[in-house]
Amino acid sequence: MNNLNTPVLDDHLHLDPVNGRNTEAVEEFADHGGTHLLVLNKPSWGLGIEVEDAGDFREVFDLTITAVADATAVLDGRAWPVLGVHPALISQLLDRGYDPAEARDLMQAGLEVAAESVAEGPALAIKSGRPHYDVDAAVWEASNDVMKYAFELGAEVGCAVQLHTEGGEDFSDVAEWAEDRGLSRERVVKHYSGGRMEGPVPSVLADKDELERAVERGEPFMMETDFIDDPDRPGAVLGPKTVPRRVRWLLEEGHDEAVHTAHVETPGRVYDIDTEATLD
Ligand SMILES: [Zn+2]
Questions:
Q1: Which residues pair with 81 in a beta bridge?
Q2: Which 3 state secondary structure label does DSSP give 185?
Q3: Number of helices followed by number of strands (H, E) in the chain
Q4: How far is the CA of 213 from the centre of ligand 1 (A)?
Q5: Domain 9-271 in CATH: superfamily?
Q6: How confident is the model at residue 45 (pLDDT cuts 50, 70, 90)?
Q7: N or C: which end of the chain has fewer CB within 10 A?
């Protein structure tokens, strides 16, 4: 057992085995009491891969799968891959001459590769969403179609879907799109969320104010850093030790129940993982 006497899960972090700190970042997380990680693949362009077909996504995902195996080796708990297609890829593809429908098709093909990895292992969940910046109507529609397809695939293989979207606190309509396709809203996670959220389950950025809001709200939530493991942008995001440090703070404030919610109960409901049983 770690020094915090509870599983500590970072629900969304990236590892870059090519240019980043990779396992060294995981060791820092573990040294501060972190035990479990959901590792998201970096966007394909962040790894220097110009995707043209489904096989190119496989190359992107394989890097994350290798990083996860190395991470698990140094954790008291374990890591799992969450694989998907970054919504901003659509803009990159348009710049390369794709029309919105062609971009949608390629992104959906990438999601199929991710879903396959969930069905056959080792991936735990799928990542999708829509651009967080303004795009024209055709691109918005194509992006929503990609996200809806992710829900369809999640329902089909029986896994959760993490979403990268614009900011906001009410995504009820998106949760309904998931339920229309057979995926419960309890299995839709809004990554980079604030403490309040309608619709999906919030994965709250480990900021004290937002965590206080999540604790006050008293609903299921998780915690994340969105650490990007990019040597060129060291201060751009929260570091890998932030979630364990915030857990220590929450425990000091007497929020033991909220810690259990965020690190045991909610991950169990959303991903069907047992962070207690998988802890040495
Ligand atoms: Zn991310």
A1: 39
A2: helix
A3: 10, 8
A4: 22
A5: Metal-dependent hydrolases (3.20.20.140)
A6: confident
A7: C
